[in-house]
Give the backbone structure.
Amino acid sequence: MSADPTAGPTFDLPGALEPLLAERGFTRGGPVFRGRSGDVAMVVRCEPQARIDRVRTITVECTPAEGERTAGDRFVHQFNQAATAFGWRGEYTAQTPGFPQVIVDDFARLTLPFVDRATSVRAIAELVLDGEVPPSDGRDPLLARVTDPYEAARRFGWPDLAARAVEVAEGLDLDWRGYEAFRTWADYYAVEVRLRKPRFSLRHSIDRFLPLQHRRYA
């Protein structure tokens, strides 16, 4: 679908998303859509919401539709459309080819399939673990790809999924930064995991002897 060359700040992004979400039973309240996919309650937002020329991504906040009531206990996952399309450092800008129509096109191509497949907390955890959708935490997405599903498995009582998360961690080819991050996580949570050690790195070997501001791994 090609972009409308006249589209700009007046482009109605929520209006373009509304029929796509209405087909799935979502209701609109201003620029926000609320609905449900299986056992998962979802809130779809444009971020930020003020103006189309400032929209950087679309997010889908996922929580269990029933059960725990506090927001902190209920939160499970936040799907980020731009992170899925471009990687965690990416975002939509006015310079993105096809902007702003590309946001709608990617919504249909990437976000709606996630909505359709994310019918349970476990389904979301498996999508993240399999690398099909990015994790909620973009600070270290490779680490979070394993730790998010692992923590969900512990929280909801799925030992088989926790074991599979450990297997995924053991199969990753890590650099020294990633190795140290996974080792710190495993030590903190007392997770038994046999990580693949990266090749010898002189930079890593001397890191702990450097002044703190120059360290890369600590």
User: Anything to note?
Assistant: Residues 41 and 65 are 5 Å apart (CA to CA). Residues 1-8 have pLDDT under 50 and may be disordered. The longest strand covers residues 40-47.
